[in-house]
Amino acid sequence: MNNKLMTMLVACALSVTTLSTTAVFAEDAVVTGETPAVTETTTTPETTTTPAPETTPAAYEPEITLATPKWTGDSDIVFYVDTKGGAVYPQEMYVYDADGAMPIISVPSNVEVNEEGKGKITFTNDALKNAKTWDDTFTNQISVDWTKYSKIEFAFAFELNGQDKYKSLFVETSVKAPEVTVTPTTPAKPATPAKPAENKGTTTTTTTTTKKEAPKTGDTMNVALYASLLVVSALFAVVLTTKKRITE
User: Fold this and answer.
1) Is 141:105 a contact under the CB 8 Å cutoff?
2) How far is the C-alpha of 25 from the C-alpha of 17, rounded, in Å?
3) What gap in Å lies between CA 125 and CA 106, rounded to an integer?
4) Hey, CA dihedral for 122, 127, 132, 133, is it positive or negative?
5) C-alpha closest to that of 152 among 62, 70, 78, 76
6) What is the pLDDT of residues 41-99, one digit of tens each?
7) Cβ atoms of residues 107 and 76 within 8 Å
8) Domain spanning 63-173: which CATH class is it, in words?
9) What's the alpha-carbon Rg for the chain, to the nearest Å?
């Protein structure tokens, strides 16, 4: 009986000791703020690539300058261009007078531009002088009378990577009407009569005299007869007068 009691007491003592130890460890964990390690499984979100912001291309600015500020009708008209690597196309042309503008029809040009876009555009003098425009009714094509106009407008189109640019320049004109030159005429020299062929033998000269006849009046009276009678009458009168003076 004593052994059983002792065994029970030992078991109780061990139980109390175990409970005390557990309580102490629990109290230490609360005081120090330690939490038991927890194994968690974390999911990494998929990485998304943010597209780079679009960059706006720089504004396209080709250059064009005029090498012929004034056209007088005796030279070419030249423009210097720098297309910055793009292309250039000559477009419309207009002429201006006091009443406004008129379009010029199809004047060819020479475009000489290198790979860098630098070069020149030439409108030849002959092409400009042979240019056509419209009449007042816009029905018939007529030659441009350059003496009537004071300036020309040239339009150009530039293109690079889808960017278009338009520019226009004005050229003053001062074309005078051509002077009318009168060529003096030299009077023709009289023809020299041909010399008669020389005859080394007997020379016979034949002179032909042309007698001019008085125009006929239809009067057939003998004038010589009446003239003779008039002279005789005059002499008779003189003789009678002389005798009378002697008698007295």
Assistant:
1) yes
2) 13
3) 14
4) positive
5) 70
6) 555 556 566 666 666 667 899 999 999 989 999 999 999 999 999 999 999 999 999 88
7) no
8) mainly beta
9) 67
